[in-house]
Amino acid sequence: MVDIEKSFGRQAFGLNPAAYHSARPEYPDWVFDMLVGRCGLRPGASVFEIGPGTGTATRRLLAFGADPLVAIEPDGRLADFLEASNATPALQVLRTSFEEAALDEGTFDLGISATAFHWLDEEEALDKVARLLRPGGWWAAIWHVFGDDSRPDPFHDATQSVLTASTSPSAGHRGIPFGLDAEARTEALKRTGAFDVVEHKIVPWQLVLTTEETMGLYATYSDITAREDMEAVLEEVGRIAREEFGGRVERNMTTSVFVGRRAADSTTGAEGW
After folding, report:
1. Prior bond to 152 cis, omega within 30?
2. Does the predicted model carry a pTM greater than 0.90?
3. Three-state SS annotation for 127-162
4. Is the distance from CB of 263 to CB of 216 less than 8 angstroms?
5. Which residues pair with 206 in a beta bridge?
6. Which domains does the chain have, with CATH numbers?
7. pLDDT 10s digits, 10-59
8. What is the arrangement of strands in the sheet containing 108-114, beginning at the earlier edge strand?
9. Are 185 and 200 in contact (CB under 8 A)?
């Protein structure tokens, strides 16, 4: 098993942005209800987004009135797609890494990252996130986690031998996917000393896919795009979906959100929904 370098995430998903965008599932409404009701997303809110990719979350943030929305996307192919798909002056796309992005500190109402934050050094990135937020501003890290070991997953079992070649940072380091490790993610927020409220919510659900949709989704996984035999792997995934599952694949999904409110001082606290 080979670990995928974090730097790979900056160029792993831009080969076919349109296909990536159509294959990735939307974030559920409850995520945005929470951002609006709890985290200050509103018309005129100043927002930055780390690693927006093709804009699955970006589009919804703009619809709720984020203005400006500063999207930091290091892959130029994804940045071009994002800009072309969201033609509004409210969106500002920075073609750079978050580490190198020049942003005004203490000016943002909300910062988010949707299924991308595991590609960064968490400690360093959270320190910069905290500096960018105004006192009382919010940070939200969101993940779609594909798979759930706590529930039966026949398709995962049937394809496991095909897919075990490399490990993405999304897999985490404690036997728990990065985006589901509530203890690690909340402790990282608290260690900054910058957030006075830390909360999280984790919701399981199920995604039903056709054979073509299954192949399209798997073609967006970094542990597959990193392989030289990517096309052969996708063909085998498609064969299993078609012949062993009758063209109807059910995948266990989990969506998680971790939020923190920027404190005016160093007092921190934690709680869960």
Report:
1. no
2. yes
3. HHHHHHEEEEEEEEEEEEEECCCCCCCHHHHHHHHH
4. no
5. 252
6. 2-150+170-208+252-262 (3.40.50.150)
7. 777 878 999 999 999 999 999 999 999 999 999 999 999 999 999 999 99
8. 91-94, 69-72, 47-50, 108-114, 133-146, 249-262, 195-209
9. yes
